[in-house]
Design brief:
The complex is a heterodimer.
Chain A lengths: L17 H7 L7 H4 L46 H24 L8 H11 L2 H18 L3 H28 L2 H13 L1 H14 L4 H32 L2 H5 L1 H23 L2 H30 L3 H18 L5
Chain B lengths: L2 E7 L2 H13 L4 E5 L2 E7 L1 E5 H8 L8 H4 E5 L1 E4 L3 E5 L3
Helix pairs in contact in B: 1-2
The chains are: A mainly alpha, B alpha+beta.
């Protein structure tokens, strides 16, 4: 008996779902990101308006003044859907855990100079409340926003901020005792240095336009806070007392570089949609940028001393050129 | 002019690589087989890291390509940024 081996090529009847094919221009293989993002926003069969807001549908395009012809025009350059997001974060988290272990095992926290320790804890620990605020704001963007292309990464951003709050807490527990966290909370609630920033965070909680919330939180506040703390202050600490704290802030620094790509792409897409959007976003950005800069000024003075003013100027310049690249006119 | 070619396993990652190759090499001829994709290009082929990164949405090391690579033909000229196949010495 003779057996012939041959390859049988089975052509799949379709490459992807019809609703994806309609968007990506024909039946061709779609990425998981596209399949896990496009057309997932619930749109129809809501019979009643919500009792808590009868002016809007449950999911409503008009909860923001930003107008988009297509809310799926937004694209996350990181192409995060649940799978890729969790894999990316698991990798970062593994590194961070190893960093914390390293600092703990070598006794680097105990050997850290006292003056630098006090300053680092005074600046970093209250920021866990800021990160929690960012978590609230991004959750709110996800809840009231429209279109999975933007609500999905907003929720990831919210979870990232929660993780950042936890890592800041861990720094506090490694370099001091739990009482340091209570002291940081007390400073956040009553120390004049933090009150403008607290007012900023609390004012963004009550914004009704979710896209303004996006600008105020992810572009303006994070855009100034992260370079200040995780770049300039980090450098100053390293120069004064070695890189121990810098190792433990690596997650935040890497995360900011990565998530900024999404923030910039989102702003650029919205601003490029039309002049109304551009004017609106530019107005929000310049207003919240000025407020954020004012709110961060006392913190910068405490963290960097004499250099604070020139550093804040540099950060503002970087911020403006970043905004210009995202098609905003400030 | 002789063809150079490269063949990859078919999966999520290589789809981005293949898209990038097709974008950077307009003369490419794709041959989709079960579980394998072979790409022929007359003369020479350029695979650019930047294009793959744009398609994948993450940073990419060209050596990661080796994981999915089945076979190739042509002389290799490789840098951090580009992977070139050609018959030029």
């Amino acid at each position: 008996m003779q057996i012939d081996l041959r390859t049988v090529s089975i052509k799949p009847l379709r490459q992807t779902f019809d609703h994806i094919a309609a968007r990506i221009g024909g039946d061709k293989p779609a990425s998981r990101y596209q399949e896990g993002t496009l057309c997932l926003q619930a749109e129809s069969n809501f019979h009643y308006r919500p009792l808590w807001d009868p002016a809007h549908q449950i999911f409503d395009r008009t909860r923001t003044q930003v107008k988009m012809k297509d809310w799926y025009a937004f694209k996350d350059p990181r192409q995060f859907y649940y799978g890729t997001y969790t894999i990316a974060r698991a990798r970062m988290q593994e590194t961070t855990e190893a960093d914390f272990d390293f600092v703990g095992q070598r006794g680097l926290a105990a050997a850290y100079p006292d003056a630098a320790r006090t300053l680092a804890l005074e600046v970093l620990l209250p920021l866990r409340h800021v990160a929690w605020g960012a978590n609230m704001n991004n959750s709110s963007i996800c809840a009231y926003g429209y279109g999975t292309a933007i609500t999905q990464p907003a929720l990831y951003q919210a979870m990232d901020q929660l993780g950042i709050a936890q890592y800041l807490t861990r720094v506090g527990l490694l370099f001091a005792d739990p009482a340091a966290l209570d002291a940081a909370k007390a400073a956040w609630m009553s120390d004049p240095m933090w009150q403008e920033l607290r007012r900023y965070v609390e004012d963004t909680f009550v914004l009704t336009d979710w896209f303004e919330q996006f600008v105020a939180q992810n572009l303006a506040l994070d855009g100034l806070l992260y370079p200040l703390v995780y770049s300039y202050f980090d450098d100053a600490l390293t120069a004064a007392a070695g890189p121990t704290i810098s190792i433990l802030l690596r997650f935040q620094a890497e995360w900011f570089a990565e998530s900024s790509r999404w923030v910039d792409a989102t702003i650029k897409t919205a601003a490029s949609e039309g002049d109304d959007n551009r004017a609106l976003l530019s107005d929000w950005t310049s207003r919240w940028r000025d407020r954020a800069a004012a709110a961060l000024a006392p913190l910068a003075r405490h963290a960097l001393g004499d250099k604070a003013a020139s550093v804040m100027e540099e950060i503002a310049e970087q911020f403006n050129s970043r905004a210009a690249k995202s098609a905003l006119s400030l | 002019m002789s063809n150079v070619f490269i063949a990859f396993q078919r999966n999520e990652e290589t789809r981005c690589i293949i898209d990038a190759i097709l974008q950077d090499n307009p003369n490419a001829i794709v041959n989709e087989q079960p579980a394998m994709v072979k790409i022929d290009v007359p003369g020479s082929m350029t695979i650019k890291r930047a294009t793959i990164e744009e398609k994948m949405g993450r940073s990419f090391d060209l050596q990661e390509m080796q994981i999915h690579l089945i076979t190739l033909s042509g002389y290799i000229d490789e840098t951090d940024e580009e992977f070139n196949l050609s018959w030029k010495h």
